[in-house]
Amino acid sequence: MSEVLLRGAGVTVRFGALVACDAVDIDVVAGEILGIIGPNGSGKSTLLRALSSVHPPTRGGVFWRGEEVTGWKVDKLARHGLVMASQNQMVFGGVTVREALAIAHSCRPKSKRVDEALAGERLVALVGLDAVLDALASDLPLGYLRRLGIGIALAAQPDLLLLDEPAAGLNDFETRELKALLLTLRDLGVTVGIVDHDMTLMVSMCDRVVVLDAGKKLVEGPPSVVVKDPRVIEAYLGTPMEEKP
Ligand SMILES: Nc1ncnc2c1ncn2[C@@H]1O[C@H](COP(=O)(O)OP(=O)(O)OP(=O)(O)O)[C@@H](O)[C@H]1O
Predict the structure, then answer these.
(1) Cβ–Cβ contacts within 10 Å for residue 95, how many?
(2) Which residues does ligand 1 sit against, CB inside 6 Å?
């Protein structure tokens, strides 16, 4: 039985009268790519932020490797192996790609043995930033900028990487490269939790998906099964997804 790395139990987030996340139970299991999908405003980003302590839950608990971590500071959680990168955080000032990665590497938890696959030149090659190392981060095209955001998150040597809409705005080629990178990360032992609207990407890449609707968990399971579920078609997909040969 695989280890549950991260557990959200009854995670509830209120913004005034709005219940953005409503008593959601969710597990992220070591070694998987877990997708969180659902309509706009269904609470996916809010759930990710609650799980990663960026915006802790109003009610319910978050557990990391069985220990309650609800409300912990983001940097403390990162030192324990949980890091979140959101598309909006992946913006940098006047530093080069090389400098940004060096800064991130210097912030990694010193207590942890360095995973060489996620450090130095191997990290640069892994995230495909070799060609732009001396470019200013602020000059990068979106595809590279996302890779840098992921590279910075990886420099913290996470066991679990949570990603909020990493494919938003990427073209087909960039999305394929992103998928290859995330599959490689899983092979290297980094567990991934991802929110995204690109259903072709999510269905082809995720081991499991959780579907949210109006803040509540609607369905969870293997993507090929979930996308055929009439509740998911009604709430999110509209029409059944076409089967790929
Ligand atoms: N900081 C906030 N203050 C007030 N309301 C918020 C805040 N953040 C999110 N919400 C609201 O909570 C609900 C869930 O938002 P959330 O961004 O989590 O949904 P989502 O499923 O990620 O949507 P999308 O797919 O459009 O990104 C929405 O009604 C949103 O307007």
Answers:
(1) 14
(2) 15, 18, 20, 38, 40-46
The reply to whether 97 falls in a domain is: yes
Q: Is 198 inside a domain boundary?
A: yes
SS3 labels along 43-84: CHHHHHHHHCCCCCCCEEEEEECCEECCCCCHHHHHHCCEEE
Residue 19 belongs to what domain range?
Answer: 4-237
Q: What is the CATH number of the domain that holds 128?
A: 3.40.50.300
Count how many domains the chain has. 1
* Among protein residues, the one whose CA lies closest to atom 16 of ligand 1: 43
Of all atoms in ligand 1, which is nearest to the CA of residue 42?
21
What number does the ligand 1 atom closest to the CA of 21 have?
Answer: 14
Asked if residue 243 is part of any domain, the answer here is no
Please write the tens of the pLDDT for every residue from 214-232.
999 999 999 999 999 999 9
Tell me how far apart the alpha carbons of residues 113 and 97 are, in angstroms, rounded to a whole number: 24
Give the Å distance between the CA of 49 and the centre of ligand 1: 11
Q: Does residue 229 lie in a domain region?
A: yes
The number of the ligand 1 atom at minimal distance from the alpha carbon of 215 is: 14
Task: Supply the ipTM of this predicted assembly.
Answer: 0.98
